[in-house]
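ok so i was messing around last nite and threw this chain in just to see what happens. nothing serious, just curious
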Amino acid sequence: MARLCLILSMEITFTTPALLFPAISLLLLAYTNRFLALASLVRKLHEEYKRGEQSKIILQQIHSLRLRIRLVRYMQGLGVLSFLFCVITMYTIYMNWNAAVKYEFAISLLSLLASLIVSLIEIGQSTKALELELSDIEEPDKSNFFSELLKTKEEKK
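result:
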């Protein structure tokens, strides 16, 4: 119970939200780089599609890229919202409106957390997209390292 009272009575100073500025800035930079990489992939696939290379895999990749672009947009939006609430928290501290400080800072932290969760989902989608890309170059018999080890000498010839 004493710990709970200590947490609830925690004081947020002017520097507390300021500590998040570099972290959020680096996240937004990483998200922007991710977006630019996706934009480059979209342009490349668009050119392939226009040239008549309309395979099933290209259409699946385009679908995956649409979802990933949407996720990156959410990541960026939540990151900016977190940054905005850090600034609002600092202003609220400056104006001595102490009743709202904890709620605004909590919103900032929750926005940052949501942004990171969406980023994790996007990373999962990215992995699926890479697996899709590799699926068209696999051998039809789906041989792998272990199946090669188990083959007899005669089968390898």
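not much to say yet. The mean pLDDT is 84.
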